[in-house]
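Translate structure to sequence.
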């Protein structure tokens, strides 16, 4: 939803007023005692003290380059005009370093492994042409098994580079996300556990973004400058602590601020011995926490012992299985929330000539070939869900049928598909519904009739029989069902005569699909808020080795769950769809509709595919599209 300028202004005013109130309440909690800083015998622009396998090492940049020391012993150095040195532990015996060469705007990434013959190994050297980089920070997502690096530009932009995925290093870093950030951004840091990216907007504010590349790009305010908050000077460096709180370094006059994850100022430590400061790192060895503060002029590094409140550490999330898309369709012609639901049409003789149908919630139906190219557009109105069945006479010849829910007039939009895969507008069936939404088709093996189940946001589900006189198609209402609240996704099991319906916020329901069956349904799988997180969106069925599986998109946590489609509906797989670096395809998030086929779709999809709508199409940022995962890859995980 777009907000007017007036509403945006009111929202900003409310945010600032709340921040001012919070400021007044927290002022009494600020610690203003001057801590004692100790000057080290090291001149550096950025400095880190780390412990690896019980031994402490010092890594820092100065006017001549990067240097690694163990006490007074120089272990390695690398010449260059490096700025903003960032570190990321890889395991107990090595860590990753990243820095920018200020003269060439080139990114350097090293691996530091003191136990190996070459302790400092250059892994990447890459010219960054997208922006002048003012800061960089690593993000390790244990949940999604990715290691990435944020490159923060000072002129309103940032890049997220993927370095490693599922323990595999990329040959070259890949830009998987471009962020819009404040124009005067000066510093960044990441809370790896919470997946939070913090960005300092000079002397104005500190903002929190989501660090996951497939997450929503919204931001929240952490702290602002006076008189609405406690910031006074320009924030030049940020660091997160193990409890999720934040250290912020103000350049001049120098202050070190300790801020909770929800923006409360826990302490403010002035450092009058320093005229200015720009570099900050934190060392937590055993029970001792120290901050190291440095300057761009490579003055002596200041070490500051920190006495921080005892706060509970927060724990990380367990890894989620990752699948990769093997193909994507062209993006929608418009931006925003446009695409919704896919369906597959199988070519009768040549699988590689099969088609993918995708609804456009603003315009109609898009048709794609198995190279992902759009081959047909049918501008019939705002379609939501679509499904396909086979063999129904139209205009005197056998055709296949696709039906979609048309929101413009709450009708069923019918399409006839000829043997060559061309779609034709075959008319509409009025439903009398007030707010038509989801839809799926059913072919009865008992009476060889075609049906459409269509639902309304009220929870009403109607079943229509589609008949033909050989030339035209008609629809007749045969039954009505009900779920307690808004449904959308549904799928019918033609073989067993079952209907599965997703009540978005609550549960998956099962009904008998026959037109003369009882109308009572059963909630078989409930939203649990952890694995199956509302909204329940797309639902599809798949057969394999005599077993039937129900696959559901769990939109609230950008994942998918595969269940047995028979009691007790045991969960078999829980996975996400992540970046495919080799094919340059981004991951998938905020999925609405999906479909599964276990029939061949040609090369790469010989055993079928899972087709999903991607709510955020990145690499680059474009209109929404559909992603295809080989069904064979999912079967591998079922063994």
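Result:
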């Amino acid at each position: 939803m777009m907000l007017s300028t007036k509403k945006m202004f009111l929202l900003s005013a409310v945010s600032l007023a709340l921040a001012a109130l919070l400021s007044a309440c927290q002022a009494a909690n600020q610690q203003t005692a001057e801590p004692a800083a100790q000057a080290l015998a090291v001149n550096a622009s950025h400095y880190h003290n780390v412990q690896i396998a019980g031994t402490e090492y010092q890594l820092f940049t100065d006017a001549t380059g990067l240097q690694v020391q163990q006490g007074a012993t120089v272990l390695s150095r690398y010449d260059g005009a490096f700025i903003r040195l960032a570190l990321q532990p890889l395991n107990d015996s090595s860590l990753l370093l990243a820095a920018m060469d200020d003269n060439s705007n080139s990114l350097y990434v090293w691996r530091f492994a003191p136990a190996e013959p070459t302790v400092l190994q250059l892994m990447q050297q890459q010219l960054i042409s997208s922006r002048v980089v003012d800061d960089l920070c690593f993000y390790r997502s244990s949940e999604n098994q990715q290691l990435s690096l944020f490159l923060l530009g000072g002129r309103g932009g940032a890049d997220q580079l993927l370095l490693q995925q599922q323990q595999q290093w990329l040959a070259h870093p890949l830009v998987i996300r471009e962020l819009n950030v404040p124009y005067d951004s000066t510093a960044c840091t990441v809370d790896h556990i919470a997946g939070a990216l913090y960005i300092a907007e000079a002397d104005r504010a500190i903002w929190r973004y989501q660090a996951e590349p497939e997450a929503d790009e919204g931001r929240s305010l952490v702290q602002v400058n006076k008189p609405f908050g406690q910031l006074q000077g320009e924030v030049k460096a940020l660091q997160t602590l193990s409890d999720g709180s934040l250290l912020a370094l103000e350049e001049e006059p120098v202050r070190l601020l300790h801020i909770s994850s929800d923006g409360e100022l826990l302490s403010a430590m002035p450092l009058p011995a320093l005229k200015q400061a720009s570099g900050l790192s934190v060392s937590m060895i055993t029970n001792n926490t120290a901050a190291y503060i440095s300057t761009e002029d490579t003055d002596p590094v200041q070490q500051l012992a920190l006495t921080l409140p005892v706060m509970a550490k927060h724990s990380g999330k367990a890894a989620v299985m990752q699948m990769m898309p093997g193909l994507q369709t062209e993006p929608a012609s418009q931006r925003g929330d446009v695409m919704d639901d896919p369906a597959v049409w199988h070519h009768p003789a040549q699988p590689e000539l099969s088609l993918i149908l995708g609804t456009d919630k603003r315009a109609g139906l898009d048709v794609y070939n198995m190279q992902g190219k759009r081959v047909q557009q049918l501008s019939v109105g705002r379609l939501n869900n679509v499904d396909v069945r086979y063999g129904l006479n139209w205009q005197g010849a056998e055709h296949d049928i696709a039906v979609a829910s048309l929101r413009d007039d709450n009708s069923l939009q019918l399409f006839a598909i000829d043997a060559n895969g061309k779609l034709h507008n075959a008319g509409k069936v009025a439903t009398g519904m007030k707010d038509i939404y989801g839809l799926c088709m059913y072919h009865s093996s008992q009476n060889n009739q075609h049906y459409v189940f269509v639902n309304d946001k009220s929870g009403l589900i109607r079943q229509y029989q589609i008949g033909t006189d050989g030339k035209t198609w008609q629809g007749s209402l045969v039954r009505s069902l009900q779920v307690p609240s808004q449904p959308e996704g549904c799928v019918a099991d033609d073989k067993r005569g079952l209907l599965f319906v997703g009540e978005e916020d609550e549960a998956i329901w099962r009904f008998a699909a026959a037109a003369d069956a009882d109308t009572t349904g059963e909630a078989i799988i409930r939203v649990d808020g952890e694995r199956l997180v509302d909204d329940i969106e797309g639902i599809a069925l798949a057969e394999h080795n005599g077993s039937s599986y129900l696959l559901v998109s769990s939109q609230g946590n950008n994942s998918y769950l595969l269940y047995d489609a028979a009691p007790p509906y045991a969960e078999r797989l829980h996975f996400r769809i992540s970046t495919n670096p080799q094919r340059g395809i981004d991951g998938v998030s905020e999925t609405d509709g999906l479909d599964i086929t276990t029939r061949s779709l040609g090369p790469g999809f010989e055993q079928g595919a899972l087709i999903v709508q991607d709510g955020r199409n990145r690499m680059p940022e474009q209109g929404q599209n559909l992603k295809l995962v080989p069904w064979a890859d999912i079967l591998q995980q079922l063994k």
